[in-house]
Design goal:
single chain, alpha/beta, Purple Acid Phosphatase, chain A, domain 2, six-stranded mixed beta sheet, 20 strands
């Protein structure tokens, strides 16, 4: 039996106000093509299907299209992640099972059994749940309590596959994170040790965006199919294709995905980057983080770069990195600040000190004249 494991689709996500739906549809089409070529027997979607608990209409439509295409190939097993609304994602789940779409959300734990030439395979769907919901003191305790619901059934199948969405560690060793994941750890309460999954032939994890193995041959984060931060650039996005043979014989093959646009970082002076961009034949549509080495004042650097790289997401001034280590310009800034605030941020990033009263008065005067035009 062949399975395709992916997770953290985050359908509907925007990065610095860049809507990712077009890029997401492109990568979902490639996932479907891999499934057809590999002739998979099931899709494993391990949580964070949407980026928000209340997804946009466009995000819902994109997921509906993907599921219809996927179900024409093989059954789909899908669980809710921490970004999903369990109730919304699993609405109509009982009806959808007739179409071979199996969804688990919230406290719900499901077991579905398929069969191949080697015998029966039990798929256990264990969605993300906050510990308090199941009266547990930690995520590990919550997972243990949920798995208890599935005990007593090993004899019903020869092999077992688990889908779940937690912060899984290996004897205290945490998975590698990226900037697109925001975690708040309180005394390790979110950690779930991989030892809880003993007895499973394959554990399909979601939650962490970088693909990695937590237990060789058994427990894997497939990672997100797209980069959602520049820290993920070059991590080799893809999906896992798993081949289950007899009990204990599991093959895991990584299939690389090719995004519509890469996320990459460029570095140099503004003039150098514009010159390099003009000379490019491909790659100008990529999502760009620009590290500018200029020491002098710059006027509208993001606008200038977007004339060459239209999808410039971030500009970082190198001279300020050592002091603040923070992003100084991005696409959302202009929509959230007044002209005086924007110029104040710009001046402070260059001069290393805030605007004084005299300079602020000049800025206010100019801003007033512009507004009257």
């Amino acid at each position: 039996m062949k399975l395709l494991h992916t997770a953290d689709l985050h359908i509907g996500k925007s990065i610095y106000e860049f809507n990712m739906l077009e890029d997401q549809k492109h990568i979902l089409q490639e996932i479907l093509q891999i499934a057809r070529e590999e002739q998979v027997d099931a899709f494993l979607l391990a949580g964070d299907i949407y980026d928000r608990s209340v997804p946009s209409t466009e995000a819902v439509q994109l997921l509906e299209w993907f599921l219809l295409e996927a179900l024409a190939i093989a059954p789909v097993f899908m669980i809710a992640g921490n970004h999903d609304s369990a109730e919304r994602l699993s609405f109509g789940a009982s009806l959808l099972e007739k179409s071979r779409l199996y969804i688990a959300g919230g406290r719900e734990v499901k077991e579905i059994i398929l069969e191949d030439s080697f015998g029966k395979v039990a798929f256990h769907l264990l969605p993300f749940v906050k510990p308090a919901v199941v009266e547990a003191g930690s995520s590990e305790e919550a997972v243990a309590k949920q798995l208890e619901q599935l005990k007593g059934g090993p004899e019903r199948a020869d092999r077992h596959v688990l889908l779940t969405h937690f912060f899984v560690c290996a004897q205290g060793k945490e998975p590698e994170l990226s900037d697109s994941e925001v975690h708040s750890f309180v005394g390790g309460l979110e950690q779930v040790d991989v030892s809880l999954f003993a007895g499973y032939d394959y554990v399909a994890l979601g939650h962490i965006h970088k693909p990695q193995c937590m237990k060789r041959g058994q427990t894997y984060y497939a990672g997100s199919p797209l980069c959602y931060s520049f820290s993920e650039a070059g991590t080799g996005k893809g999906v896992n294709v798993i081949e289950l043979q007899e009990h204990g014989e599991v093959g895991v093959c990584r299939k690389v995905l090719h995004p519509l646009r890469q996320m990459r970082t460029v570095k140099g002076s503004l003039a150098e980057l514009i010159s390099q961009g003009n000379a490019l034949e491909t790659g100008r549509e990529d999502f760009i983080q620009a590290i500018l080495t200029d020491r002098e004042e710059l006027i509208d650097p993001i606008g200038s770069l977007r004339s060459v790289y239209p999808n410039t997401m971030q500009i970082v001034l190198e001279k300020r990195l050592a002091e603040a280590g923070t992003l100084l310009f991005h696409g959302a800034e202009s929509k959230k600040k007044t002209m005086e605030e924007l110029f104040g941020s710009f001046y402070e990033s260059l001069a290393g000190e805030p605007l004084d009263a005299e300079r602020l008065a000049v800025v206010q005067e100019v801003a007033g004249e512009v507004e009257r035009l």
